[in-house]
Amino acid sequence: MKLAFQLAYRNLIGAGLRTWLTVSVLSFAFVVIIFYNGLLDGWNEQAKRDTIAWEYGKGQLLHPNYNPYDPFSLQDAHGVFPNAEKQNLVPVLIRSTSLYPQGRMIGAMLKGIDVNQHILKLPTQRLKESTAPVPAIIGKRMAASTKLKVGDEVLIRWRDKNGTFDASNITIVEIFDCNVPTVDMGQIWISIDKLWNMTGLQNHATIYINGTSASPTDMAGWKFKSQTDLLKDITDIIAMKRVSGSIMYLLFLAIALLAIFDTQVLSVFRRQREIGTYISLGMTRAQVVGIFTVEGSMNSLLATTLGCIYGIPLFIYISYTGIPMTKASQNIGLAVAERIFPVYGVGLILGTILLVVLSSTIVSFLPSRKIATMNPVDALKGKVQ
Q: What ranges in 206-284 are assigned the alpha helix state H?
């Protein structure tokens, strides 16, 4: 095996520019695979972390009539879950509303939440501290779309428990900065005690936020969704992005592998005297095939080394500075931070190295199989086989 590596190294270095072109393309594919998957892993972790902190907690308990994708289900989606406080469940009552900033009418969700909750990062203490009749907090996206700022009063209209319209002014007491659009865009948060008084739905809730790792008991028709269930949409989107992005770096990898394959075919054709000499000196055909396979697969080792030389400093720099995202990405309905910090796990790096080495070894072996059918006498004479 040592002889095979020595011969392979000598032949690769002797090939000069052809070897370095192949190695450069293969190393670029190696770096792009790690960078793109690291970026997706960083986005995935950030999106899940922020969504859990701002919206999901340890899970949610949903009213049987509540469908998060159907706003028309809100009118009847409320009820009382017994022993909610004992099980550390935070009630959230959701009602449809219309608000009228600057003479415009905008549809929104009016959400009442316990001002003493500590499960979510929502600044609900500002609702508790305010002396306004109906204090409210909104996110920066909602503030931008409605042109509201702290201290502004705005008229809202809602239906009470009997379906009768009512209206009142709310006062904006806080605008929070959040990466999760589902707690920001089109959302108005007020104290649940205020909302109970406004709607007459005393002690009712649409969902409960779970504050412990244990699942609620005695659910009686309520639907409990764990963190895994709630994060399934994000997981599916990231998986779809990973598949679509793989087309780009697999193209680079295919170009490099095609170059290795062509080089191996040419080597087996042009070096028949060398192959005949190896066999006449006592090597078996399998050993000669091994030499040529090792020679081809060493391209991947050189590419990995070259990729590490310029890739590691680049990855370290990006992991500290992050990649800035455009403002348009903040409004696509997904949790996207202003900067995404890629995550380069050990599994990702080792898996990518294994993919590059294994694929280059396979494409190196395929042309080398021709050696097993060669006649060593004809090979020494230089006859084309």
A: 227-230, 232-270, 272-280
Interacting residues of 163 by C-beta distance below 8 A, sequence separation 6+: 75
CA nearest to 259, candidates 14, 15, 18: 18
Polymer length of the chain: 385
Rounded (5°) CA angle 245-250-252: 110
Side-chain-facing half-sphere of 6: CA atoms under 13 Å? 3
Q: Tokens 């990855």 label which residue?
A: 315
Dist. CA 189–CA 169, nearest whole Å: 14
Q: Which residue has the higher pLDDT, 265 or 135?
A: 135
Give the highest mean pLDDT range of 78-92, 103-117, 229-243: 103-117
Contact 113, 133 (CB under 8 A): no
**CA angle centred on 249, ends 244 and 254, rounded to 5°:** 120
Per-residue confidence at 383, pLDDT binned at 50, 70, 90? low
Q: How many other CB atoms sit within 10 Å of the CB of residue 212?
A: 13
Q: Give the whole-angstrom CA distance, residue 207 versus residue 204.
A: 9
289 pairs with which residues across the strands? none
> Three-class SS string for 156-208?
EEEECCCCCEEEEEEEEEEEECCCCHHHCCCEEEEEHHHHHHHHCCCCCECEE
Cα dihedral sign, 33-39-45-47: negative
Decide: 256 and 87 in contact? Cβ < 8 Å. Answer: no
pLDDT at 134 over 90: yes
> Which residue type sits at 167?
A
- Tell me the C-alpha distance between 51 and 336, whole Å: 10
Closest Cα to residue 12, out of 343, 190, 260? 260
Q: How far is CA 155 from CA 165, 172, 183, 207, 322, in A?
A: 13, 11, 20, 26, 41
What lies within 8 Å, CB to CB, of 270 at 6+ separation is none
Q: What pLDDT is stored for residue 313 in this prediction?
A: 92
Tokens standing for residue 166: 């009512």
Q: How far apart are CA 221 and CA 61, in angstroms?
A: 10
CA neighbor of 54 nearest in space, from 185, 170, 147, 146: 185
Residue 91 pairs in a beta bridge with 208
